[in-house]
Amino acid sequence: MNEHLRTALELAASRIPVLPLRAGKVPFGNCPACADKACGGRPSMKNPGPCTCPDVCHAWAAATTDADIISSGPWQRAWVQAAAVAYHPGGADLTVVDLDDADAVRWARENLPATQAVATTRGEHWLYLGAMGSANGVRPGVDIKSTMSYARWLGPGTGTITVLPDIVRALVVKKPSTVLPAQQTITVPAPAGGGECRHRTPAYLERGITMAEQRITDAANGVHATVYRTFLAVLATHGRCGCLTETHIGRLFTAAQAKGETARHCTDAWTNARTTLGV
Predict the structure, then answer these.
(1) Is the pTM of this model over 0.70?
(2) Are 27 and 35 a contacting pair, CB within 8 Å?
(3) What b/e string do you get for 103-122 counting C-beta neighbours within 10 Å, with b at 16 or more?
(4) Which of 183, 206, 261, 266 could form a disulfide with 253 if both were Cys (CB 3.0 to 4.6 A apart)?
(5) What is the per-residue pLDDT across 114-158, written as a single tens digit (0 to 9) for each?
(6) Residue (of 102, 68, 62, 66) closest to 86 by Cα position
(7) Burial, 15: exposed, middle or buried (Cβ in 10 Å; 0-12, 13-18, 19+)?
(8) 143 near 135, Cβ under 8 Å?
(9) How far is the C-alpha of 136 from the C-alpha of 2, rounded, in Å?
(10) Cα separation, 219 vs 171, whole angstroms
């Protein structure tokens, strides 16, 4: 029995749902039967439950405490290739405050209640008892990993775990000013002809924005790249005719943030797409 499998079984015995990670700290990819959403159990915002596939196929939604599943079949083969053990904090009624660097650790020590801390490569994981929604980039260098997320197992850490405080829950509450970049007016040059939309009907634009929202929502991986490519496609079609409004742009930003992107990432992707197209 290899070390990762032994660790996974020990965690599962403590009712902590586990999964293997391959090199690069990423989950194993979908098996052929589950590719392209064929199984209907993709762990997305709309469908958060695990599917019935016995393979290590669905990131955090594959995490389990079932020792028979963990130590046999596709899972047993995955542990041979695994580079690390991960767990689903929300499934264990835990929340991990992932502090990515020294500045984030310093902020936590000054602002958050002391709790169990685990050293990471560049910072620390602070563990609290209680589950909540997950979110990336809640402040510089700080991610929240709980429900619908996974964290690497790096050992039990030091200190006594404390109950999840309201100050941590408040970190994922999006203020209106962070949902949409209202402070940044995004304009597109009007073409000759007074800025009239060159497309057939307003429904054409509405359909395009709806399809763009869906493309972002359906992204199973590579969210950063999908958001950028979607912004690029929208701007390539509508960026020069003067028909895009802040409402349309806000809808795209909201869809991206629902997939874990921060307001800063959205703004950067939009700016980069505009620069690429020269609009």
Answers:
(1) no
(2) no
(3) ebbebbeeebeebbbbebee
(4) 266
(5) 999 999 999 999 999 999 988 889 999 999 999 888 999 999 899
(6) 62
(7) exposed
(8) yes
(9) 32
(10) 25
